[in-house]
Description:
By secondary structure, the protein is of the alpha/beta class. It is built from nine helices and seven strands. It has helices at 4-70, 79-82, 105-122, 134-144, 162-177, 221-225, 248-254, 316-319, 330-404; strands at 89-95, 126-132, 148-152, 183-193, 196-205, 279-281, 284-286. Strand 6 (279-281) and strand 7 (284-286) form a beta hairpin. It is elongated.
Amino acid sequence: MANLKDLRVRIGSVKSTRKITSAMKMVAASRLRRAHEASIRSETYSIAMKKILTGLVKSLSERQEEYFVSGRGVIRPPKMLVGHQRSNTHLIIAMTSDKGLCGAFNMNVCKRVAGIVLALEKEGKQAKIMCVGKKGYELLRRDFQDLIISKFEGIGKKEVAYSEAEEVAFKAISLFEKGEVDSCTVVFNHFKSAISQEVRVEKLYPLDNFLEHNPWQGLSEMDFLTATETGIVDKDDWDYSDIMIKGEEALLENQEIEISSSRYNIKAEDTHSGRGSGTWSTRGISSRKKETSRKMSIPATLAGLKAPTEDLDSLQAKYGPYLYDFEPSDVFILERIIPRYIVDTIFRTLVESIASENGARMTSMDNATRNAGEMIDSLTLLYNRTRQGLITTELVEIISGAESV
């Protein structure tokens, strides 16, 4: 039979644990609300970024098909759009937490990562792992120590900063540019609700999933090396003979319409975080030489100088890819949009992972608080029974002694 003193100590210990788990539950609930709001805000930006990227990729792929038909060669696409000519090494970014006490949150991610690694090994491919979070590194290093190439800790202590997402994204992009990896996926917990999280695998690069059909598929490395670097559009690519308004022919005979100040102008400069118009490279952010701008002669009607009399919607099928003038070229803009998209994807998945972590911790601590309460009730009942048994035993001894006298 348990000692009364031991039972009192154990009950006191469980009560202290219940206070801790209850406090952690309230803290996680407060952080969950802020993380969920941040996740909603990041989703709006992510949707807009996907729309921009989808439109640019569609325009470039359609223009490449027209080049093939007219026999004008190959436009050199961004490498991160079509990928390397091989697919041997795959990078896996595992997003976990730095702290525990959040149920199966970290284990579920690590199980999915292990499954991907084993599937790649069966296909004869190599896997590399980048751990974002201390717990993921501790779990994965037991079996995949030789595959882990880097780890990040301390991300999102208060809230996820965009600079932290840039740090993770730059590491992933630099590995691709060095040729050390050919593709990359992110494994994270998607936030569905406070009590439900779903492990998802999202492709980071190459972005060939944005291509409805890949016009560059099957080309050799030599074809890409001899391709047009920026995909400059000639004046002949814009055929506006059938939408001319009377009187505009004389205007366009002697000069080109500069639309750099019009609403159709798109600047490729990226001023986020003071990085200027640099580009990702293997050594960091470096400046690029100014590339030849893509300029086109267009009718004044589309430059906003005169209201068009034609129905532009009816011309969408023919002039759809070229309704906008990109300054510089669409390829040049894509080369800068794609790294921004990758940073945004990392940022969004980090925010969702933090929200999922707090939701899992809140649920786990709520269950722990309830279990502690049930344990206290059972221990208290055992304590009272034990105490009553000792009292009964003492009374029996006293009565027996009195009768013997």
